[in-house]
Specification:
Layout (H helix, E strand, L loop, with lengths): L1 H42 L1 H7 L8 H21 L3 H4 L1 H24 L4 H8 L3 H16 L6 H10 L11
Helix pairs in contact: 1-3, 1-7, 5-7
């Protein structure tokens, strides 16, 4: 009898609880990490406006403003779980573009220089950050927001108004 209770606790309950908590954690972690990049760019706007690359026929300032907007707005959406799956697409695209335009160009200039293995290893670390964000955003896109999100509360409200009793437990 005790074996069944333990099995029920660890298998049935843990899946529901930890699955939603893990989605909440990865969503908030990715949102906060992405938000801090936007805040840094706003704080040092004059510096970044001079050195930010121009992309897609836009000036460097326009490109920087687009990146700041994506980093601030969509990271806040991710933190709160509002339009979560849609909110992962613009940051994912911006990180792929950052990997291609910014990091790949830096790696090409570094690879042309004569360097030793240690300095080359440290120069390659820049490429990890955009791809780590892309990985987190793909996970959030596939897994969804979970129950600890505005999306879940809105789905309860719009699907069936009689489910509002479930909101009392949240």
């Amino acid at each position: 009898m005790k074996k069944r209770r333990l099995r029920k606790i660890f298998i049935a309950e843990a899946y529901r609880t930890y699955g939603n908590l893990s989605r909440f954690f990865i969503r908030v972690f990715a949102g906060i990490m992405f938000l801090q990049f936007g805040i840094r760019q706003v704080a040092n706007y004059d510096f970044f406006a001079q050195y930010f690359p121009s992309m897609f026929g836009m000036s460097s300032e326009t490109t920087l403003l687009c990146m700041i907007t994506i980093e601030l707005v969509f990271s806040i959406f991710l933190i709160f779980g509002f339009l979560t799956r849609l909110s992962t697409i613009p940051p994912m695209i911006s990180m792929i573009v950052a990997e291609y335009y910014i990091v790949a160009k830096d790696l090409m200039t570094v690879s042309a220089m004569p360097t030793n293995e240690v300095s080359l290893m440290f120069s390659l670390q820049l490429g990890y950050v955009p791809m780590l964000f892309v990985g987190m955003f793909v996970f959030i896109l596939l897994a969804g927001p979970g129950k600890v999100s505005v999306d879940y509360l809105l789905s309860l409200y719009f699907t069936n108004k009689s489910n509002l009793d479930e909101l009392k437990g949240v």
